[in-house]
Design goal:
By secondary structure, the chain is α/β, with parallel strands linked by helices. The strands form two sheets. The chain has a four-stranded mixed β-sheet, with helices on one face. A four-stranded mixed β-sheet has the order 4-6-5-7. A hairpin with a 5-residue loop joins strand 1 and strand 2. It is about 15% helix and about 45% strand. It has two helices and eight strands, in the order ββαββββαββ.
């Protein structure tokens, strides 16, 4: 299994608002890519069919996202920071390692539930530190998920 490398790509374009006016917006998307160059090419390919007129990609940055939990029925993306708890064998002290994942869900509670469902069967002890709604519009994995947990295989 290849580890996914997630890039946040900002796309700037003229968007038709609900009241009929046109407004210049910049929206963030997540793309699984091997490099900044590939991230730019992939986001261009993904958004082109949905944007009429010119658009630009003013910013691309690597993220520290380890995994994505999908729910095709939801339209919001949540950032979940959780800590894996291990015991240092030398000092016998608890050690916490922070890990970030993205969860697709309609509500904060839904994101928490989806995350816990996705973590079911995990042997490591963990605790959720934070669940926060993001402005991410969509996520484009290199490959779609392959199992019932909704985890991306990529």
């Amino acid at each position: 299994m290849i580890m996914a490398l997630w890039f946040e790509c900002k796309v700037r374009y003229d968007k038709m608002m609900e009241n009929g006016s046109v407004k210049r917006v910049t929206e963030p998307y997540l793309v699984d890519a091997l490099s900044f160059t590939e991230a730019e090419a992939r986001i261009t390919e993904e958004v082109r069919p949905f944007i009429s007129g010119d658009f630009s990609i003013p910013a691309i940055k690597k993220t520290n996202i380890a995994e994505i939990f999908y729910d095709q029925t939801a339209d919001k993306w949540w950032s979940v920071k959780y800590n894996v708890i291990t015991i240092d064998e030398r000092t016998a002290k608890e050690r916490r390692t922070a890990i970030y994942v993205m969860v697709q869900a309609g509500t904060q509670q839904g994101a928490t539930d989806r995350f816990n469902k996705g973590m079911k069967g995990t042997l490591a002890d963990y605790e959720i530190e934070k669940v926060a709604e993001t402005k991410i519009m969509d996520v484009y994995p290199a490959q779609f998920f392959t199992d019932e947990t909704g985890k991306a295989d990529g």
